[in-house]
Amino acid sequence: MTIATATAGTAAVLAVNNIEVVYHDTIQVLRGLSLSVPRGAVVALLGANGAGKTTTLKAVSRLLELENGAVTAGDIRFADQPIAGLAPHTLVRRGLFHVLEGRRVFEDLTVEENLTAATYACRSGTARAGFELVYEYFPRLYERRTSTAGYLSGGEQQMLAIGRALIASPQLMLLDEPSLGLSPILVETIFEIIARINREQGTALLLVEQNAAMAFAIASYAYILETGKVVIDGPVERLMRDEDVREFYLGQGGRSYRDVKHYKRRKRWLS
Amino acid sequence: MDWLFLFEVAIAGLGAGGLYALAAVGFVVVYKATRVVNMAIGEILMLGAFVFFGFASGLGWPPWAAVPAALVVGGLFGGVVERTMIRPMLGESPIAVFMITVGLGSLLVGLVELVWSPEPRRLPAFLPDAPIFLPTPWGEAYVSPKTAYASAAALVLITGFMLAFRYWRGGVALRATATDRGAAYTVGINVPLVFATAWIAGSVAAFGAGVLLGAIGGISSTMGVFGLSVLVVVIVGGLDSLLGALVAGLLIGLLEALAGTFLGGEYKLLVTFGLLVVVLLIRPYGLFGTREIERL
Ligand SMILES: Nc1ncnc2c1ncn2[C@@H]1O[C@H](COP(=O)(O)OP(=O)(O)O)[C@@H](O)[C@H]1O
Ligand SMILES: [Mg+2]
């Protein structure tokens, strides 16, 4: 059983067990998805566009209900507690922070106000120390603290999105495509900082990425999603040696992405 | 040209504008946080005036107790409306919610007429009534004390709202929610609580405006038509801008006074709606509104 391998030794901070997710009571997007994130670990969740990665994260952070989505089967446990019935803002205060796809900074607010807003994620009131920690990881944000967030560059906005999470010192951060739309150099920078946060703060990360190579560089375990199901999972060292994974997700098979998709459709080894 | 007279008219207009602005703030706070177009703003204002009347005349409370009591009832009222009428509509089409607020308006008129009967009344005087004279280069200008004090009170309330919006953590949460509701949830903001707070604050502002307006011109169950001018103010100022509410409130108060005095009462509406059309043509989102906001 794959979950056993992932959780072996440590307790999982997050355990998703066989969930199904349906939007608008009709569109089924996740079909029996299971995954687990050990305490303090970095776990990658990969897969093509539309595979259901974002949906998985929203199921975990309980934002699904805001979009007419519902978990119709299975269960999710965070820090050994079932999350069913919790409001998203309650879950955040317990230490599960979801950094949304596309950064989603509060554009009309200044950098500092964005961080102030994020202090609602802290367990007890505001912590000035939280601000200093954010500015230590992202000196650039300190320089721009009075700027309106809407005027920041994409990289700076991504820093702010992660900074907002950092202020709450969560046990688990869900990161949805932090590399989206950033230049390769910026992606490197962001990933270095993400890795540092994991190392130094002990924050577990569930990292959704299109950029599999980048994700493999910092993750210890990975799940690959295809139409709402996990099709491959394992320790990253093993997946990196896997021929199929190399070909489809690391782009080392000498084929274009389109060929790969076409090939996949024919081969049907996935289901 | 009688400059002194012009000055007096302008001051009176700005004074009335202060009340427009306060009621408009009541509208804007709700719209900004929840994107609900509150068509009942005029009727909520009227209810505020009658609740004050109930405390001050009905129960015989002194003004220093009746005014805060009316504001507290305003807050409760806002909370109850949000919880029972607006929150269940979350996720429904904006038009449905819009209609709910229209219904709320008629409901309030009916309620007030049932409880207090429709005929106009005077509020017990509580604003100082010693006439005020302002020195100007053209002589001493007379300022109606009621309008002056009511408007000053309105401006103090508006300033309070603006400071809270800018510096209070709850104000930051409200602006964050206004900018991106989904992201607000992810940073731990209790979004439904923000909605409730906005309705509470908005209703307190409207109740306050009602009490002040009633103190100047008396109260009646048709006071709600004031809401029409308030809607013009918020459209001109920008639906989601407190500063817009303030500036447009003063501007429209001024314009109405000038038009009413120099062109005749029947031109008041013509001039305000003329301004409305011009502003909509040039800046569809209002003088200070956020660009992506749809037209009303
Ligand atoms: N709010 C929604 N309502 C209906 N369908 C949705 C919604 N969000 C996502 N979907 C559908 O669910 C599938 C998975 O989407 P998503 O989880 O965003 O994938 P990914 O993040 O892997 O690209 C897609 O087919 C998408 O169209
Ligand atoms: Mg996605």
* Spatial sequence of strands, sheet with the most strands of chain B: 1-2
Q: Give the low-pLDDT segments of chain B.
A: none
Order of helices and strands of chain B: HHHHEEHHHHHHH
Number of H- or I-type helical stretches of chain B = 11
Largest sheet of chain A: 6 strands, mixed
Query: Could you give the distance between the termini of chain A?
Result: 17 Å
* Spatial sequence of strands, sheet with the most strands of chain A: 6-7-8-3-9-10
Low-confidence sequence ranges of chain A? 1-9, 253-271
Helical fraction of chain B equals over 70%
Shape of chain B: globular
Radius of gyration of chain A: 18 Å
Ligands bound to this protein structure: adenosine-5'-diphosphate, magnesium ion
Task: Write up what this structure looks like.
The complex is a heterodimer of chains A (271) and B (296). By secondary structure, chain A is of the alpha/beta class. In chain A, 39% of the residues lie in helices and 26% in strands. Chain A contains twelve helices and ten strands. Chain A has helices spanning 2-7, 53-61, 88-93, 111-118, 128-137, 139-143, 154-166, 184-201, 212-218, 236-241, 243-249, 257-267, and strands spanning 12-23, 27-38, 42-47, 69-78, 81-82, 96-99, 172-176, 204-209, 221-226, 229-235. In chain A, the strands form two sheets. In chain A, strands 6-7-8-3-9-10 form a six-stranded mixed sheet, with helices on both faces. A four-stranded antiparallel sheet of chain A has the order 2-1-4-5. The radius of gyration of chain A is 18 Å and the shape is globular. The model of chain A is unreliable at 1-9 and 253-271 (pLDDT under 50). Chain B has a domain at 19-222. By secondary structure, chain B is mainly alpha-helical. Chain B is globular and about 60 Å long. Chain B has eleven helices and two strands; from the N terminus they run H-H-H-H-E-E-H-H-H-H-H-H-H. The model of chain B has no long low-confidence stretch (mean pLDDT 91). Chain A binds chain B through residues 61, 63, 66, 68, 87-89, 92-93, 97-100, 104-109, 113-114, 116-122, 126, 164, 168, and chain B through 91, 169, 172-173, 175-176, 178-191, 290. Bound molecules: adenosine-5'-diphosphate and magnesium ion. Residues 53-54, 101 of chain A line the site of magnesium ion.
